[in-house]
Amino acid sequence: MDRREALKQTAFLLGGAITASTWAAVVTGCQRPGNITSFTEEGTLNLLSEVAETILPETDTPGAKEAGVGPFIAMMLQDCYEEEDQKLVLDGLTELNKRSKEEFGDVFTETSAENRTTLLTIIDKERIAYNKDKKGEDPPHYFTLIKELTITGYFTSEPGATQALRYVPVPGRYDGCIPYNEGDKIWAT
Fold first, then answer.
1. Distance (Å, rounded) from C-alpha 126 to C-alpha 112?
2. How many helices (H) and strands (E) does the chain have?
3. pLDDT of amino acid 174
4. How far apart are CA 124 and CA 177, in angstroms?
5. For residue 92, what pLDDT is reported?
6. Residue 48: closest CA among 128, 141, 116
7. CA–CA distance, 24 with 11 (Å, rounded to integer)
8. What pLDDT was estimated at residue 40?
9. Exposed/middle/buried for 93, CB within 10 Å: 0-12, 13-18, 19+?
């Protein structure tokens, strides 16, 4: 069985846990899609980092910026996603800045944290409505891709896996059934 077939089998076993876009990125990651170099530009990296930090801000655990989620999203989009998805996200980021300027008088990275949260909350509601009315062939909403990559990047980073999740560097025996107490962190390992 080759790598691509193994990934397809794994995705089938996971069912709906992986969205079509993320799955497509994993499969096409085996190939080299066309690259849009805009993701490596400092302004785009900074914007991705600020969007990710707004989604997962620093609390008693590190935020998305400290976990390096912005550069992770840029790398994933550039190296693993199709050019159409890359353009979708870039156009979405342009729209995000435009709306921030219209609503708050400044681009997203320059407006207050409260304004950023307000704007992303509005966009997230639009994303939910879009997904509700979406036809099978319609592209995903750009914010869906950003949120998925933010969560994936954060919980696969060292700060996310070791500080936001429970982590055992060298796991011992396998315990198939461990009591869960409300408020406990989920396991990283």
1. 21
2. 8, 0
3. 80
4. 36
5. 96
6. 116
7. 10
8. 76
9. buried
C-alpha torsion angle, residues 128, 132, 136, 137 (rounded to 10): -50
pTM of the prediction?
Answer: 0.76
Burial per residue of 31-64, b for 16 or more beta-carbon CB atoms within 10 angstroms, e otherwise: eebeebebbeeeebbebbbbbbbbbbeeeebbbb
Alpha carbons 42 and 68: distance in angstroms, whole number:
14
Predicted pLDDT at 17:
44
Q: Which residues of the chain have pLDDT under 70?
A: 1-36
Q: Where are the domains of the chain?
A: 38-163
Q: ∠ at Cα 19 (18, 23), nearest 5°?
A: 75
For residue 139, the 8-state DSSP code is: P
Which phi and psi (to 5°) does residue 63 adopt? -85, 180
In this prediction, residue 1 carries a pLDDT of 47
Q: Judge contact between 151 and 164, C-beta under 8 A.
A: no
Beta-ladder partners of 187: 166
Signed CA dihedral, 73, 31, 14, 131: sign only = positive
Classify 124 as helix, strand or coil: helix
* pLDDT at site 102: 96
